[in-house]
Design brief:
By secondary structure, this protein is α+β, with helices and mostly antiparallel strands. The protein is built from seven helices and 22 strands. The protein has five domains: 2-56, no CATH class; 72-82 and 363-430, conserved putative lor/sdh protein from methanococcus maripaludis s2 fold (Beta Barrel), CATH 2.40.420; 86-95 and 279-361, Efflux pump adaptor protein, beta barrel domain (Elongation Factor Tu (Ef-tu), domain 3, Beta Barrel); 101-125 and 250-278, Beta Barrel (OB fold (Dihydrolipoamide Acetyltransferase, E2P)); 132-245. It has helices spanning 2-8, 14-17, 22-28, 31-59, 132-151, 169-193, 199-245; strands at residues 71-77, 79-95, 98-102, 107-112, 119-120, 125-129, 248-250, 255-260, 267-268, 273-278, 283-290, 302-307, 314-326, 331-338, 350-367, 372-374, 377-384, 387-392, 394-399, 402-407, 414-417, 428-430. The longest helix is centred in the middle third of the chain and has 47 residues, at 199-245.
Length: 432
């Protein structure tokens, strides 16, 4: 039993080790062995730390100030320049004139010569109503005029001259009767004075003279009436001819057809719209300028505008200013005239306009690629004493590849071009 117990606690005997833990083994290990093991482990740790330090020192790149890595960047100076002072607003292009054209007379539409988008010139025929009825009315009026001229003793081909009533047949006949009655009265009165005729004969002569005088006055009034009838027949003929002319619808100005409303064969009432015509040159640009920018606006100022979907720029002039500010929107209504001789601009287009209120104004420019935008905030990275500094800025207009800085940056400061994800407080070196 004593031999078996000693074998269980003796190192090196498998059966004994199998039943022992690490703590038990350490208690039976000699103190000198334990100290040697601790020294060996400590030496290994020191050697490993030294190897790591040497490796890091051999591979680390050159460091800048504060031990941080220096990054090479390209910079550009914030340049001073000049730009026209402008007020930027948005508005709508409208036609200078737009009208729904209709016939002045009623009738069946015989022909329409234009359609949507057709370009027309002033006086061009657009549509026509069947003219047969109107031609007959002209002939009827011509016949009535000839009849009125004949009653005044005028030839059909005679020129329209002032009519002397005394030269008309009716008045000449009445005057002849009046003169004869006057002669008979004088002769009868002379005979009566000599007591050669009775008083009744003198009375009859006086009565005949009065009747003749009344007929003469009546003939003068009849001629005046016939002259009025002649003037009426002339007016009726002119009206009939005008109605015949109105069977043709003509363009009142140069423009383009915006809409065709009717079709040939349709019966039209007088005034019923046939087509809608718009004037394409010039166009009217309607702008609502904020009250804070309205003080510098004047008629005649230059307006530069662009429209959606068109990269070209167009120029116009301020033509009209409203006399009052709109209280609901606190804006001033402004209208500019924009030349459009080739029809490149279309009425109804949305436009962005710059109204030039001053010729030159000093500004600060930076390259467009130097602007960093995040969460709606614009900033630039400035290099000062070998390190980056973030500066928040407010930008304005853009000119080619440059951006105007309204505030936040002074002229001459060096800004980083294409900063990428560069932030402030980083040591940098400027590329040569």
């Amino acid at each position: 039993m004593d031999i078996a117990r000693r074998a269980a606690y003796t190192p090196g005997i498998p059966g004994g080790v199998r039943g022992m833990n690490r703590g038990s083994i350490e208690r039976f290990r000699p103190p000198a062995a334990r100290a040697a093991t601790f020294l060996i482990l400590l030496t290994c740790l020191v050697l490993l730390a030294a190897c790591r330090s040497d490796t890091a020192a051999g591979t680390r790149p050159p460091a800048g100030e504060g031990g941080r890595e220096a990054k090479t960047v390209r910079v550009a100076a914030a340049a001073r320049g000049s730009l026209p002072r402008v007020v930027t607003v948005t508005g709508t292009l409208a036609a200078e004139d737009q009208v729904a054209l209709g016939m002045k007379v009623s009738g069946r539409l015989e022909q329409i010569a234009v359609d949507l988008g057709s370009r027309v010139t002033r006086g061009q025929e657009l549509a026509r109503v069947a003219p047969t009825d109107f031609r007959l009315r002209v002939q009827q009026s011509e016949a009535a005029l000839r009849q009125a001229r004949a009653r005044l003793g005028l030839d059909d081909d005679a020129a329209d001259e002032p009519i002397d009533p005394e030269k008309t047949p009716l008045v000449r006949q009445a005057r002849a009767v009046l003169e004869q009655a006057g002669g008979d009265r004088e002769r009868t009165r002379a005979l009566f004075d000599q007591q050669l005729v009775a008083k009744s004969q003198l009375d009859a002569a006086e009565a005949a003279f009065l009747v003749a005088d009344g007929r003469y006055q009546d003939s003068l009034e009849e001629i005046i009436n016939r002259r009025a009838v002649l003037a009426q027949r002339r007016a009726e003929l002119d009206l009939a001819r005008q109605q015949l002319e109105d069977t043709v619808l003509r363009a009142p100005f140069d423009g383009a057809v915006r809409e065709r409303i009717v079709s040939p064969g349709q019966f039209l009432n007088a005034g019923q719209p046939v087509i809608t015509l718009v004037r394409m040159h010039p166009l009217r640009l309607k702008l609502a300028v904020p009250e804070r920018d309205a003080a510098g606006l004047r008629t005649g100022q230059t307006v530069r505008l662009t429209v959606a979907g068109d990269m070209a720029s167009y120029t116009g002039k301020v033509a009209r200013l409203s006399p009052a500010i709109q209280e609901s929107s606190r804006t001033l209504m402004v209208e500019a005239e924009v030349p459009n001789p080739d029809g490149a601009l279309r009425p109804g287009s949305f436009a962005t306009a710059d109204i030039v209120t001053a010729a030159d104004e000093p500004v600060v420019f930076v390259p467009q690629s130097s602007i960093v935008t995040f969460a709606g905030i614009e900033k630039v990275i400035v290099v000062q004493d070998g390190a980056t500094v973030e500066k928040r800025v407010r930008t304005g207009r853009r000119a080619d590849t440059r951006v105007e800085i309204l505030e936040g940056l002074e002229g001459g400061e060096m800004v980083v071009v294409e900063p990428g994800n560069l932030v402030g407080g980083v040591s940098v070196t400027v590329a040569g």
